[in-house]
Amino acid sequence: MARGASLAGVLAAGLLLLSMGGAAAAKRRNQRQRRDIEPRFGPVEEQIWDSGLMEKKLPFATVVEKGREYYEDASQKRFKGFVLGYVTPWNKAGYQNAVTFRRKLDAVSPVWFQVRREEGKIKITGGHDYNKTWVEELQQDGPGTGPLLVPRFIMEMDMQEQVEVLTNPADLMTAIGTQVVGYKLDGIVFEAWSQWVASNGMSNEQFRRAALATVMALGQMLKANGDKKLYLAVPPLYPANEKAPWFAREDLEMLAEHVDGFSVMTYDHNTGSGKAGPNAPVHWVRTNLLLLEKGATDDAPKLSEATFAKFLLGLNFYGWDFALAPSAKRGAQGLAAVTANDFVSLLQRHQPALTWDDRTEEHSFEYTDKEGVPHSVWYPTPRSVEMRIQVAEEAKVGISIWELGQGLERFFELL
Ligand SMILES: *[C@@H]1O[C@H](CO)[C@@H](O)[C@H](O)[C@H]1NC(C)=O
């Protein structure tokens, strides 16, 4: 369909060309052609390295035309470390990309399950999102060949309830174990830490101990039930603009024995402050690896390679649009998430110049909306993604991607 649309565009521009003459016409023609740039989709012979997409000086038209294409041979994995990718059920493109690029993914985590508490008992919801057709497509190359299926289980309860659950986690173990066996999962991604940190639970010694004990027990339970995996979603170890990590290295070492990976959310660097800026400045991403390199004291040894490999550096496949002046429509913060679809249509509409920032290693651009409000947009490009993959490769850590349906298809070629 998209190819049809672009062909029609080319034809329209061609007819226009025949019907006009002179400089004014040529100018109009240019504008017309520029407006007609349409994204192309699907497999192509051209590799990303020849596409112009890796350049610092990146014309918007190159992104529009080639960003949604992908190299036809998606059977090879390029990155040496472990790759975990999230899929959200409300964004169907993620299901599709997970299947198309399954050979590049070691684990896929559909965001399906919520852990709730009702009348003093654990209740897990979200089973209706389990998609059998898709699981079969993911494993179409034969048993044991597809990526591991490790859906996310997120704790959705208030802190008082969490305290009760963590103090007596047997019910939680049984409930999660039942789902893992029932749906024949390879394991889970467990998400609760962001809330534990945000609500200051982790600064309470008793809470912290109970939380660590629960996570370790969860890991042991899953391992004992057929070597099922446990991945932990955790916030960036160094919060944006802070010098001290929130996570003690001793805890990391202790947990690493029972956890198969830490999915570290190294993105959203500027959403807290609401100030327009990069999503994952590369120096901050590197800072997040410091905890592995150095302990509390200078002579503390480096963590083991096995622990390094469990560290899954977060890669954002989405971006943010910051309104630079208050606008009623966009809410007080003036922040809107940007997906591949949004990015490409913003580029088509505003035809901006993309700027590369050498310090943070990200592209961005500005545009003015219909109400005259200026915006600054920070969305990953193949070059920025590659820079972070190189950081992970050098450090011998893995990566975790949020999420597979929000990125340009071209990003997958880099994995
Ligand atoms: C389930 O997966 C199939 C195959 O990937 C997909 O076409 C379909 O849209 C999915 N269904 C739902 C409800 O998400």
Automatic annotation (TrEMBL):
Residues 81-415 form the GH18 domain. One of its GO terms (molecular function) is chitin binding. Residues 1-25 form the signal peptide. Keywords: Lysosome, Secreted, Signal. SMART domains: Glyco_18. Pfam families: Glyco_hydro_18. One of its GO terms (cellular component) is endomembrane system. It is found in: Lysosome; Secreted. InterPro entries: Chitinase_II/V-like_cat (IPR011583), Chitinase_insertion_sf (IPR029070), GH (IPR017853), Glyco_hydro18_cat (IPR001223). GO terms for biological process: carbohydrate metabolic process. It comes from the Eukaryota. Its main location: other. Belongs to the glycosyl hydrolase 18 family. This is Chitinase domain-containing protein 1. It comes from Chlamydomonas schloesseri.
